[in-house]
Write a structure and sequence with these properties.
α3 packs antiparallel against α6 and α6 packs parallel to α10. This protein is 27% helix and 23% strand. The strands form five sheets. Strands 4, 5, 6, 7, 15, 16 and 17 form a seven-stranded mixed β-sheet that branches. The relative contact order is 0.18. It starts with 7 loop residues before the first helix and ends in a 37-residue tail after the last helix. α4 links the parallel β5 and β6. It is an enzyme of class 3 (hydrolase). Belongs to the peptidase S13 family. GO terms for molecular function: serine-type D-Ala-D-Ala carboxypeptidase activity. Its EC number is 3.4.16.4.
Length: 527
């Protein structure tokens, strides 16, 4: 898809920009005002940092009220955007599915029913909900029991056919497979907590009551679907060094290392090899807890007959509400589910291909030139995603006209706000600066890749859209450079200049975390 005609609102915006430029002598790109000249010099100074030596940088800043480009460094250069890709996926989802869209998980019965006996199969019908908790499956089981079902002579069938059976993105690296940020995608899944990292289980290792004994290992939620190979040891004293990792191709989780007596349990999020079976196991256990016996086996991946009778139902939170955990915590699984859901709703095909095609058509309608970018997944985990900064800024400028914009803008991480579901991945960044509580932006992190794209209100009240993409650096992190640019933009005021030497603004250092981590809370590897 290539660039399409701008919507009427954008055409009017362009006319306003032209008029504003004509009315403000010296405000053109060829002849910028002194304040804009100084802004550009300051950003140039930041990008001259030695950490970017040999790296690539693409930075664009636009005044959304006039359309004036205040800064452009390699704006048309295609770079890996990491989780900035979620800007495309989230806006397309809100437009194409609607903020009120919900995922439905239901239970249906086929066969004859008499006096609590179902002579047939019980179907757990997945609707793609990435927020399903063990408690939600328990509530479904309670509904089944309340409906009078006591014994099922047939099978428990887990129907995940709303989406295809391709679980992992085609470009995802194999060594990411065990980690929660690369969880397999299924229309039936389980999230272990209200971060909603669907398709994962939290494994806890607590010290035993004596030295030399293995730690006590449990999971959240409790499930027999994951097998634990406990090779760790409880020690009388010393540093706790527990490693928890799932073996490739199965659901054996190996626990190694040591934990000291009296220490707090060590915990880690681990992906589950087949989330459909995981969901079925949690649900089957819940049925048993509520007095419903299934005599047959668990069968995965068969469709529910159209004639099956509804027995129980659970509806997810609305898509508008889901935007908060999705964007604040940069949840990769949510992005991939939304991509497949878009494909399913618009074309009847719950695949990455169908979803990405629809996303491309939507962002082209906003004014992005999709002939100059490539999107390979919904989350940005693929290193084959390539997007120029100027295209991100085009999208950021255009979606301000959408009726759901306020919901989406509020769901973006907000700099320097310590609450997890407010500040999100920016919660410990830019605190105590003019950018704190001001910058709403999407972060992005892969090894050697960092990005920050979103909005900042300047000191004279103008909403600026910006995109900062940094690639191919060798240092551990360049996020402080992104922060310096954002703080500079927050302090920018047209018509005000200083004779002081151009220098990067001072910003508080983000607490050091392992390479690739953009979250400010403790969670393994990345987010």
């Amino acid at each position: 898809m290539h660039r399409r005609h701008f919507p009427r609102a954008l055409a009017l915006l362009a006319l306003v920009a032209t008029a504003a430029t004509a009315a403000a002598p010296g405000a053109t790109a060829e002849s910028p005002t002194p304040a804009t000249t100084q802004l550009r010099a300051t950003i140039d100074t930041i990008l001259a940092d030695s950490r970017l030596s040999g790296a690539q940088a693409s930075v664009v800043v636009v005044d959304t009220s006039t359309g004036q480009t205040l800064y452009d460094r390699n704006g048309d250069r295609r770079l890996i955007p990491a989780s900035n890709t979620k800007l495309l996926t989230s806006t397309a989802a809100l437009e194409l599915l609607g903020p009120g869209h919900r995922f439905t998980t239901d239970v249906r019965a086929s066969g004859k029913r008499r006096a609590g006996l179902l002579s047939g199969n019980l179907y757990l019908h997945g609707g793609g909900d990435p927020t399903m908790l063990a408690a939600d499956y328990d509530a479904l089981a309670a509904q089944v029991a309340a409906d009078g079902v006591r014994v099922v002579t047939g099978n428990l069938v887990a129907d995940d056919t709303r989406y295809d059976s391709t679980r992992l993105g085609p470009d995802w690296t194999w060594d990411d497979e065990p980690y929660y940020y690369a969880a397999p995608v299924s229309a039936l899944t389980v999230a272990p907590d209200t971060d909603y990292d669907a398709g994962t289980v939290i494994v806890h290792a607590a010290p035993a009551d004596r030295a030399s004994a293995p730690p006590v290992v449990t999971t959240t939620p409790a499930t027999g679907y994951v097998r634990v190979d406990n090779r760790a040891e409880t020690v009388s004293s010393g540093e706790t060094s527990i490693s928890i990792e799932r073996e490739h191709g199965g659901n054996t989780v190996v626990v190694t290392g040591q934990i000291a007596l009296g220490d707090e349990p060590a915990s880690d999020w681990v992906t589950v090899w087949e989330p459909t079976g995981y969901a079925a196991d949690v649900f089957r256990t819940a049925l048993h807890r509520h007095g419903v016996r299934v005599l047959g086996r668990t069968v995965l991946g068969q469709p529910t007959p159209e004639t099956a009778d509804p027995v129980a139902r659970h509806d997810s939170m609305s898509l508008g509400e889901l935007m908060t955990p999705f964007l604040k915590l940069s949840n990769n699984g949510h992005a991939e589910v939304l991509t497949k859901e878009i494909g399913r709703v618009l074309s009847g095909s719950g695949t990455w291909t169908a979803g990405l095609t629809a996303i491309s058509e939507y962002v082209a309608d906003t004014g992005m030139d999709t002939g100059k970018l490539r999107q390979r997944d919904g989350s940005g985990l693929s290193r084959r995603n390539l997007v120029p900064a100027t295209e991100f800024v085009d999208l950021l400028s255009a979606v301000r006209a959408e009726p759901w914009f306020a919901t989406w803008y509020a769901a973006l991480p907000i700099a320097g706000q310590p609450e997890r579901f407010v500040g999100g991945t920016l919660r410990s960044r830019m605190a105590g600066t003019p950018a704190a509580g001001n910058v709403h932006a999407k972060t992005g992190s892969l090894t050697g890749v960092s990005g920050l794209s979103g909005y900042v209100t300047s000191a004279d009240g103008r909403l600026l859209a910006f995109s900062i993409l940094l690639n191919n650096y060798l240092t551990a992190s360049v996020k402080s450079l992104e922060d310096q640019i954002a703080v500079t933009l927050a302090g920018f005021r047209e018509g005000q200049t200083s004779t002081a030497r151009v220098a990067a603004p001072a910003v508080p250092e983000t607490p050091r975390t392992p390479e690739g981590v953009e979250c400010a809370w403790v969670k393994p590897i990345t987010c």
